[in-house]
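hey
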């Protein structure tokens, strides 16, 4: 139920008097992990929309602000699709990125095996504070980007809307996300400017869940990533 995520109002009795108190749900956290979100009912999925976009939750007549920073991570199992509810386009658009998780490498899988078959119990370490995350977010936003690259980003998103074989292209959120994530990539690579390579690399995770292919394209076995590749080739980004 949506209340299981957002929270609910409960009756609390104190000194013989009863009063209503809001009990926050799990969405009131800095990092929310929605595991196999496509197994949740549509009503439960929609409860995340306001939180993801407005950073607030409305319960009854009251609105509660979520603490910053606020991130939502969600997983989907692409194999077992029985009993699932595909996320509607409006909710998919709220997610900044769609990332494919590959199988771990040989060395990584060996570490996983050792971790779960040995006697050691690794402890989670606090490596960053909330305040530091907010500072890093602001530093990323401060990275400059040329007007030419901004125009290229908008052209790229606009092209998805008119590309043959695409039923619905990306929304304006894609343009915003493409610029922000390109700035973040430049920052992580130690650069104080955004390059065309940043736009190219970030186009895939930004656009792949925002492009709805036509029936004919799906019948041919095309994927959103293939469409993105063709658009990038034509635009020479």
């Amino acid at each position: 139920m949506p209340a299981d995520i957002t929270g609910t109002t409960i009756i609390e009795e104190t000194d013989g008097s009863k009063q209503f108190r809001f009990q926050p749900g799990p969405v009131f956290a800095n990092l929310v992990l929605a595991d196999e979100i496509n197994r949740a009912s549509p009503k439960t999925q929609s409860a995340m929309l306001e939180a993801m976009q407005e950073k607030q939750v409305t319960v009854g007549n009251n609105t509660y602000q979520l603490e910053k920073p606020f991130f939502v991570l969600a997983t989907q199992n692409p194999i077992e699709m029985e009993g699932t509810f595909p996320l509607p386009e409006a909710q998919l658009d709220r997610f900044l990125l769609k990332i494919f998780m590959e199988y771990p490498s040989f060395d990584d899988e060996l570490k996983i095996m050792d971790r779960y078959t040995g006697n050691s119990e690794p402890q989670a370490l606090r490596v960053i504070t909330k305040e530091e995350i907010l500072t890093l977010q602001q530093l990323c936003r401060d990275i400059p980007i040329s007007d030419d690259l901004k125009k290229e980003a908008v052209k790229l998103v606009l092209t998805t809307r008119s590309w043959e074989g695409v039923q619905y292209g990306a929304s304006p959120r894609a343009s915003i996300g493409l610029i922000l994530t390109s700035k973040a990539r430049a920052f992580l690579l130690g650069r104080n400017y955004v390059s065309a390579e940043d736009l190219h690399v970030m186009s895939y995770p930004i656009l792949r869940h925002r492009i709805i292919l036509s029936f004919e394209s799906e019948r041919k076995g095309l994927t959103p990533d293939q469409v993105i590749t063709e658009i990038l080739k034509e635009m020479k980004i």
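The first helix runs from residue 3 to 6. The first strand starts at residue 7 and ends at 14.
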